[in-house]
Amino acid sequence: ITQLQMTNTVVPTIILCFCISLTFALKHQTLTPDEPRDAETMKYGDSVIYELHNIRPNSHYEVRISYPATTPTSFDMEFLEPKSESTGTRDILNTEKIMFTTDSSGYIVGREQPKESKYYQVKATAKEAGVATDPSNPPHSSVVFNIVLETLLYGAPYELTKMVPVILGLVVLVFSIILPQVFPRVSGFKKLRD
Asked: Taking the C-alpha atoms of 46, 51, 55 and 58 in order, what is their torsion angle to the nearest 10 degrees?
């Protein structure tokens, strides 16, 4: 075997091994609407790629990560290719979220349809942030979190729609108790004024 033949076979093999190792270095998981993945674990500095399966046309969604406040962590979430205008993320009270809408074809508004994968992908990365509350405890090397691809109804989670009848019932109850007590006083006030 000549030096040139060896170079022609070794270099592509090294490149192939490198590409395969990169593929396995990033974990790929699946997110399906309204099926939370609880107690996921990620080491600080690592990333996990979540493929968004079964997203429906003309729908609103959010990908949301929540984690315990006792583990000082910062999560970054972003859509992978195809790159396009940012849909924006929001970080509030130990929750990181990305909200998006699909069009009539089932593609995310403001993004091109996926090219390499047939699914949209979101990459989540965990970074250590802050100082642990107990100095006698060694710092955590990983964080436990929950992630969900949630379907939204008018920008609010579907679970909130279950609360609407309860809230309306409470409003009716309050008005049925308070109004009979307030109106007699108002009508009494009219008699005093006359």
From this structure: 60
What's 44's DSSP letter?
Answer: T
CA distances to 102, 122, 187 from 152, rounded to whole Å, are: 11, 18, 46
Residue in the structure block whose two tokens are 């109850």: 173
Whether the upstream peptide bond of residue 82 has omega within 30° of 0, thus cis, is yes
CA 76/CA 97 separation, integer angstroms:
9
Q: Left if phi > 0, otherwise alpha if psi is -120 to 50, otherwise beta: which for 21?
A: alpha
How many other C-beta atoms lie within 10 A of the C-beta of residue 26? 13
**pLDDT reading at 23 higher than 80:** no
Residue-wise pLDDT for 102-159, tens only, equals 999 889 998 888 877 789 999 999 988 876 666 655 666 888 999 999 999 877 777 7
Find out whether 100 and 52 touch, Cβ atoms under 8 Å.
no
Query: 155: left (phi > 0), else alpha (psi -120 to 50), else beta?
Result: left
Planar angle of CA 50, 56, 58, nearest 5 degrees: 120
